Automatic annotation (TrEMBL):
Source taxon at top rank: Bacteria
Protein name stated in the entry: Alpha-glycosidase
Keyword check for Disulfide bond: no
The keyword Coiled coil is assigned to this record: no
Species of the source: Paenibacillus artemisiicola
Amino acid sequence: MFQECFHHSPRSNWAYAYDMDTIHLRVQTKRDDVDEVTVIAGDKYDWASINEELPMLKIASDRFYDYWEAAVKPKYKRFSYIFRMRQGEETVYLSEDGTCGEQPFPVNGYYEFPYIHEIDLFTAPEWAKSAVFYQIMPDRFADGDPAIDPEGKAEWGGQPTADAHFGGDLQGILDHLDHLTDLGVTAVYLTPIFQSPSNHKYDTVDYMKIDEHFGDKAVLKQLVHACHERGIRVVLDAVFNHTSEQFPPFQDVLKHGEQSKYADWFHVRSFPAEVKDGIATYDTFGFFGQMPKLNTANPKTKKYLLDVAEYWIRETDIDGWRLDVANEVDHHFWRAFRQVVKAAKPDAYIVGEVWNDSRPWLQGDQFDSVMNYPFADRVLGFFTGEGVDGRTFAEGMNTLLMRYPQGTNEVIFNLLSSHDTPRVLTRAGGNKLKLKLSVVFLLTYIGTPCIFYGDEIGLQGGNDPDCRACMIWDEERQDRELYDFYKLLIGLRKSHPALRSGRFRFLKADEGDARIVYERLGEGEHFTVWMNPTGERTVLEHAMETNDWHDALTGDHAPVKDGMQRVELDPFGYRILARKL
């Protein structure tokens, strides 16, 4: 065995408390190098009486490694443990002290999980595990109150530009809640709604005021209440990394320089605060001088922003915050933010905008989730691209799954498109069959799925601002067949817990073959999903032990003959099979 490939760490995603009774352990070995892994666990104070051997399941593989997992339920919320690896006749033990051929005497040198403390658990809201989100840009969704339209607004449905305002507002969302209810979504995420000069509102002027072109606090309260009556949660967007240059404290800095009482609210490198040759003398979002970066380590700035977060929860009963440019704000601020938000509403959902590996923010003391852009890149690269085989796709997805503990994976914010990316149908080259495969994967995968407004009726658009087109409300211009497809898949997910929080594992993902099979396994039910991302009709086979499978969408029996299930798939086709346990 390649012992140099063994890896385990008694922390983070390798050893973590899933709940107050269960510890999940993971260990890494070289791919296809180890036949069997067993965890030997016992109480460090009474090993002789309290110990057990638990087989570990190979839950994932990537390009170089296999990953094994087991769930341990210690009698006294603590335990010590060691791993036994076997390949053929060779056996090796892995402990904190390294590897050896004989089991060391317990428990010196063993790994240890000292105690399950409830306060240290990663606890995301239960409702987020079952949610199907719908992202809305208010200016582009619906114009419900023409009396508050901005001056010079563009004609609804026109070409989106960086500066165009189209007059969408909160009343427009209220007017179309039947659309959301019929589609089946259970949560909405609104891009910023606070006072701002732009159409996107990511440059805030007044955090305590709804933008006058969107409505006011009374309309927001009405919207949240109406959503809650329909079982829909509401998450708002918070921009705490930066503000608008029109933000009054920054205007004071421009006027009074170093003498301003707000001078320390920002990162001013040299006074006066100004833009010289295109570069500001103060830190900004990107290189946009009109978006000065806030100093969230300043106690007064910090208190102001935390008060904002608490205020809107208590005043309007929103259900959480999505946090813009979250990775550029200090961790101390986010820890305080979580404490304030959870005190105001314990089941509030906190989602950070982080585009890369997000483990530092997902330790249970900051965010509940992050926007999972790496998921979108891999899924769309596979289903809408060319030349990626099943093995490469599975390896990429498994790498993502192994980044985080299961509890995090259950609420990770999965998306295919957003206001910052091309729309999914555009990424698919207009091919609806490729789009559907991507959506099937999204809605049968572990995590919290999100749909960008209009994707369900066939909106297209490239990068910002093209992806921010106005919603189409004329049903004759909507793709109603695509809408019904989204509705069907959302309904299937909502009806089956195994599709939301059950175990995910690839069953077939081979080199040189784009066809894949994966499973979702939960209490009382088992699903397999068969996909053919090729332009050829095919028959896909996989060994199955039982003959009790049926098509989850049609109810038709899916026979197993001689221990083998054979599924016919159209070009770019899929089938979802299910059975009861």
